[in-house]
Amino acid sequence: MKKSNWGALLSAAFLMAISAIGPGFLTQTALFTSQLGASFGFIILASILVDIVAQMNIWRVVAVSGSPAQEIANKLLPGLGYGLAAMVAFGGLAFNIGNLAGAGLGLQVLFGMDVTLGAVCSAIIAIGIFLYKEASRAMDIFVKILGVMMIFLMLYIAFKSNPPLLEAAVRTVSPQHFSFTALVTIIGGTVGGYITFAGAHRLLDQGIHGVDNLRTVDRGAISAIGIASVMRILLFIAALGVVSAGHLIDPNNPPASVFRWAGGALGYKIFGLVMWAAAITSVIGSAYTSITFIKSFHTVIQSNLRVVTVCFILISCILYACIGNPVQTLVVAGALNGFILPLALAVMLIAAQQTTIVGQYRQPIWLTYAGIAIAMIMAYMGVQTLFELFT
């Protein structure tokens, strides 16, 4: 692989992975570990396999076509791309409210700062990165540094919690408990909504597309899932160590209690740093990816990407300051996100069969059928989620 392609691959992989590792990611992992114990390892393993299949289907079609997802959708059915883009942008905006809340919480833990003020400061940092004259390079460096830092800090907490690794390994292949809800939730939290497109669109922006680059695309897709999964596994075994020691995990803030029980006062400060890093990088990933979905709709947007991206972050910040509690917004956005993955995946699976989009390329049969199964299951669960939400 060319050195330039390797750098592009890492940038795309880290952007996707760091977009996934947000406040919700940390909370879900700690909460489900407290509920399922070592058996949650099986859920993680199953989700990794599903995530890889979904991500490879989407990344491959985007790369071979050389077009972003919304343009592919519009080629299949005029107007479909606009609908998909609107869903992704709304979901990204809503989740950015939660991401900024998480960033504010992280700074409160670290410095005793007011949560709203911390959210505003974090938004200013994110805006500063996009206003920098080499914003693309700055974004790549920023997410890589914070991504590596989070993994090492999480590794320390996992070590301090003294987890029962043998039990975790056994239950990963032979679980005592299973939760379909947990499986669907963490799949959605890793490749749902805008997240899976973050890396695919980043590769496009860096000129990595076409059949000749499929090996690079596959490596990027798998690497992105791998980075996010390492973080999830480390948090899982840290939480498992806490639960196995007989400590109770606070349902109101599961990850904070894991860090505090495992590392004491220092562990709680580390939680603040990890929470802030996870939140601020998710703000950046959400803003970048959401704008890639709408930038091709009008030349004004295309020629003013920085301004539009900054406005996206500003609107998120203002909405958070006005709403204060973003929980209900996140619930609605989460339900909407439940439809984005199956819809996007279905679009890509159909597009993979259209010579006008992918030329003579043929998607591997195993990847196609596995993708169909995942799209159907996620669509069913999305309908169930909306039904529970609005009845």
Automatic annotation (TrEMBL):
It comes from the Bacteria. Its main location: membrane. PANTHER family: SOLUTE CARRIER PROTEIN FAMILY 11 MEMBER, TRANSPORTER PROTEIN. InterPro entries: NRAMP_fam. It comes from Sphingobacterium populi. It is a multi-pass membrane protein. It is found in: Membrane. Keywords: Membrane, Transmembrane, Transmembrane helix. The chain crosses the membrane at residues 36-58, 79-97, 109-132, 141-159, 179-200, 221-246, 266-291, 303-323, 329-352, 364-383. This is NRAMP family divalent metal transporter.
